[in-house]
Amino acid sequence: MISVRKALVFDSLKYLFFIGVLAFILVLGSSNMNYNWQWYRVPGYIISRSADGSIKPGLLLSGLWITIKISVVSLVLAFIIGMVTALLRLSTSFAAKVIARVYLELIRNTPLLIQLFVIYFVLAPVFNISPFNSAVITLSMFEGAYASEIIRSGINAIPKGQWESAYSLGLSTIDTYVFIILPQTIKQVLPPLTNQAVSLIKDSALVSTIAIYDLTMAGQAIVSRTFLTFEIWFTVALMYLIMTISISAFVHYLEKRNNYVQ
User: Is 34 helix (H, G, I), strand (E, B) or coil?
Assistant: First the structure.
């Protein structure tokens, strides 16, 4: 417990030192550029007031909500795609292995932005896919390819004795996966899957290139109108940071809870 507290204190001091150095650089740079900071204008783009005095979400908060929706749906689909692909690669079917392999090689060896353009500009008009769905499909397939390798590695790490014990009890392959293998696998691969979730949230900024008014697009629109370059982009970066830290903290809580239960 003491070592954990020392680590937390040390990490906090490092964080405060980093923030201090960054603040000093910003102040020094802005003074050399004669930049006029206008932070007082930023809250109006987070929460705004309508003509009748009612409070409503500002442009940044509205864009943040779109980013959250895209990220959450894509995370769920990416996990499902990753799980299915991992099971296909581990199956005894030659066709299933080929399909999974082709998907992995195609997705992992092409840039995410190109995949986004192909789905939005080529496939979306043919199949009448909305920009939101195009973004979700692209992010899910891209992150699902990496998640599948993580899950596959986790399954392969399970000792063979677990399989043999399950089969000796009369369990089928599906039951062995559901009740024995996958629960242990998820616990092992949770940290690397968390990194993929963080990566997905950051990659979601690319959806602004296909006319989706997400957080990044909202920031671009505000900067083009107000020229509050530093204030807006720092605020946008802080919002992304809050989302990614929240996911990491939640997963850390789950890990601690699981260790406590065990």
Answer: coil
